[in-house]
UniProtKB/TrEMBL annotation, chains A, B:
This is Aspartate aminotransferase family protein. Belongs to the group II decarboxylase family. Keywords: Aminotransferase, Decarboxylase, Lyase, Pyridoxal phosphate, Transferase. GO terms for biological process: amino acid metabolic process; carboxylic acid metabolic process. The keyword Secreted does not apply. The modification N6-(pyridoxal phosphate)lysine is found at residue 299. It comes from Micromonospora craniellae.
Length: 472, 472
């Protein structure tokens, strides 16, 4: 494809995306097709000779988009949001066009340096502790996801626990990882990958009301393990759990980790974005105890997947844990020690220029624009929670400190399951569920960029109507 | 950003990329700035209020691109190529615009199904063994990189070796991983991550001429380990090693793995793409013994990073090794068992719609277009090798079965190091190096889409001229 062919086809794709966003509200949020429907519509193989882009775009409309769950739909309230935005798409386009491989500083100096600078920008913007800035021994990096950040934290933690022997001799299965019963599934997955198994994970009980980790229970578990001759290696605390956005008490958890030399990773995958607003930084109290911290701009900060921002207080320890240096990657800049090679901060070797999309987003929206986006979500969630609170058939499940509202019909699970299925079948909105203290609970997470109060009110209307038979 | 604002800014970014590609040849391939130059040019923080895209594009030109190594430059011959192309950029734009999160089938049915179908297309196109098709117990998935594919293969291998107990109790440090002394550094990194440590990796000697793994040495190592009471878990064979594109002998390695029940992963990260041409499939002989296989369309098949195509013969075993199912991800489709949830095929939970860029590439170029790209690279490498062969000052180092030529000035290392530094300092071309049997060796890898014989001839001219003083 020549640059001029790209120019013409590129305009068409830009138009396609703009039209898609314009028509999102008219589409069903989720498809109703059974499994296999899209696969059956695709041909058996690629064409022998090339086809024009128009043919591909036509198939995109007829074969692909009808089979999608539309995460950017204003009626998408499932899971957590997975924001994208115009400037994010543009920044990522530039990254795709440059095709730079940023594994080493030397293979893309600007790719590396902009990432370091932007992670410092973000740390400032969110008022993160000084220890995470690149001006000291710490620093930030973009991971693909919070799951990968948790894995990297786990690896550094076992490296530290083994006083450096882990790289050579492998992992000691007596190391233990602690997270709350509400911690993300990636903690167990990371422990499994690192060779600790499910036996290596201790799930710490939570406060029955707030669903936040009990610091007393954590202390008891750590001390019991030490007495039993096993080694506490890592605590993963959560700011904004996936199920209900509970906030673990860092001011109590931090000192326990410090006392016992346990690595503390703080997972704020969803809720971290809120900290761009000064009034929403309460979850970060005590963060100065953390050895590492992450949040996902790709969830709620208008930056497309994949973009997890991950900071460590001691970058030297991280690099020591993960570096492998074969001859074909040796270069003068690396040997000078004056540069960052981000391949040593992550699991994969290769990396794309992801800082660009973050740069476009930060510059287009500015600090105030990002705050407006977050505040809008929080206000819309509060608006929805008010509706729930005012209706005796329903109950709110726990607090809603950010933009997720957990709620349910009072009473048994089954009417709640039917309610969820019924509202999702309308195609107008999409909600998901969780279990809180064993009870089936609906989750409404606000955050898609196009969602306004019209959509939240419509969501309530649909839920309220669908609940009528259940209330009879 | 409204859809109409996106439309206008999108055209400008498309133009920017087209102009960048048009002017690549005029730019120095690598920057000469010292570390910190780009960071020093960036402001201290994001703007308070948003800025227009034009301002960002202007800064891209003045602050960023002068600090890049240009991987798409026609004079880029370093490492392996990291192809991008017009259709790949377009497909990835659509993915960014859709912002679909494909972690579960239910969260993006078309995202999942297209990926399954396209990996079958690729398997057909490359004539991979039937066992990797989704029509049987096997199937394909897109990983971010071959490093991650190696890690996933390592995890499945230890899961198999432990007969299922690994998930619960953790890894047994008596498991062993085998690769050749020329195997990729990601094998050691994966073993470290999995908790086996460097002690868990056996580097098998290679044939001194071909640099391919010695099957006899592999057998001896496996049998010695078994006799010593440790357990061979994984062999990683390489088709096209990073250093010299050596091809390990699968027809001999495969039966050894089968005999001892060892998981065989084949890493064809770079060279796999060549198999789109029937005459370049020699490296895949014996691939029917493999339990898993990967190659990177993002290296040499015109598809931008990240896109590693990874297949397994037994998807059930893979999912069993990696799945974790919290309540908030439960859904009817998953429970039906009729769908693929690709989150269980990889380390992270989240995933973007990466099949789209592959779809745009396969359809725009067609089978014949892709073959033409590969054949062009192979022919240009052969052309360069002919120049080297005809000049008595130089020697070729090993065969060049694909599009990488390894060569050196006869004699000591130091003149070779000076030669490399001198030609790279011209800014016209960029080569990297390796060590072969301890000797400093230059690598010229053809593969950037804009590279033609003019550029290869210029490369030879520059190298030949720069070598003159050394030959005095």
């Amino acid at each position: 494809m020549t640059p001029d062919e790209f120019r013409q086809a590129g305009y068409a794709v830009v138009d396609w995306i703009a039209d898609y966003w314009t028509t999102l509200d008219e589409r069903p949020v989720t498809p109703q097709d059974p499994p296999g429907a899209v696969a059956a519509r695709l041909p058996a193989g690629p064409p022998t000779h090339g086809e024009p882009v128009e043919a591909v775009l036509a198939d995109l409309d007829s074969l692909v988009t009808p089979g999608l769950t539309h995460w950017q739909h204003p009626g998408f309230f499932g899971f957590f949001p997975a924001n994208t935005s115009g400037p994010s798409v543009l920044g990522d386009m530039v990254s795709s066009g440059l095709g730079v491989q940023g594994m080493l500083w030397a293979t893309g100096p600007a790719c590396t340096e902009m990432e370091t600078v932007l992670l410092d920008w973000l740390a400032d913007l969110m008022d993160l502790p000084q220890r995470f800035r690149s001006t000291g021994p710490g620093g930030g990096v973009i991971q693909d996801s919070a799951s990968s950040a948790t894995l990297v934290a786990t690896l550094v933690a076992v490296h530290r626990a083994a006083a450096g022997r882990w790289r050579q001799v492998g992992v000691d299965r007596r190391y233990r990882v602690y997270t709350s019963t509400e911690g993300h599934s990636s903690v167990e997955k990371a422990a499994r990958i690192a060779g600790l198994g499910a036996d290596g994970v201790r799930l710490i009980e939570v406060d029955p009301d707030t669903r936040a980790m009990s610091a007393e229970a954590l202390r008891a578990a750590i001390e019991a393990d030490i007495a039993a001759g096993v080694t506490p290696a890592l605590v993963v605390a959560t700011v904004g759990t996936t199920s209900t956005t509970a906030v673990d008490p860092l001011p109590q958890i931090g000192p326990i980790c410090a006392e016992h030399g346990v690595f503390l990773h703080v997972d704020a995958a969803y809720a971290g974005s809120a900290a761009v607003c000064p009034e929403l930084r309460f979850g970060h109290e005590g963060l100065e105890y953390a050895d590492s911290y992450c949040f996902d701009p790709h969830k709620w900060l208008l930056t497309g997947f994949d973009c997890d921002a991950f900071w460590v207080a001691d970058a030297g320890e991280l690099v020591e844990a993960l570096t492998v240096l074969p001859e074909y990657l040796r270069n003068a800049a690396t040997e000078s020690g004056a540069v960052i090679d981000y391949r040593d901060w992550q699991v994969p070797l290769g990396r794309r220029f992801r800082a660009l999309k973050l740069w476009f987003v930060l510059r287009w929206y500015g600090v105030e624009g990002l705050r407006e986006h977050i505040r809008s979500g929080v206000a819309l969630a509060a608006r929805f929670a008010d509706r729930v609170r005012a209706d005796d058939r329903f109950e709110l499940v726990g607090p809603h400190p950010y933009a997720l509202v957990c709620f349910r019909l009072r009473g048994a699970d089954e009417p709640n399951e039917r309610l969820l299925a019924a509202v999702n079948a309308t195609g107008r909105i999409y909600l998901t569920h969780t279990r809180v203290a064993g009870r089936h609970t609906l989750r409404l997470a606000v955050g898609a960029p196009q969602t306004t109060k019209v959509h939240v009110d419509e969501a309530w209307e649909l839920i309220s109507q669908a609940a009528l038979p259940a209330a009879d």
